[in-house]
Design goal:
Strands 1-2 form a two-stranded antiparallel ribbon. It has five helices and two strands. The protein is globular. By secondary structure, the protein is mainly alpha-helical. A hairpin with a 5-residue loop joins strand 1 and strand 2 (59-60). Helix content is 64%, strand content 4%.
């Protein structure tokens, strides 16, 4: 599946589940994406397995939280009319032309 196909799939799912019933301002979108990243950090800090399922059947771990990040990014980019696949390729093309580690940046 291509990224733009995933974006459409996620957006259609979000609409069916009621996540498109109101406009989500960009600051709130960023905060919600960040909250998923924070949950991934907490899973790691708690030494959880990277991917596991709890007793209720809910996926857990860093892998699940990373998936939530991608789901939210696909949803919000579709909501804003952003062609995420094109933007990723455009950014990777630019980054390819940059120095190794972008001039020795840390991390």
């Amino acid at each position: 599946m291509k990224i733009n196909q995933l974006q459409i799939l996620v957006y259609d799912w979000a609409k069916r589940k009621g996540w498109c019933d109101r406009i989500v301002p960009i600051p709130e979108q960023v905060a919600l994406i960040h909250s998923e990243a924070s949950e991934a950090l907490e899973a790691w800090r708690n030494k959880e397995p990277q991917s596991w399922t709890d007793e209720t059947g809910k996926p857990q771990g860093v892998g699940s939280e990373y998936a939530d990040i991608v789901i939210r990014v696909c949803h919000y980019s579709a909501l804003l009319g952003i062609d995420l696949q094109a933007e990723i390729l455009r950014k990777m093309d630019y980054n390819e032309k940059r120095e190794h580690r972008h001039g020795n940046k840390a991390g």
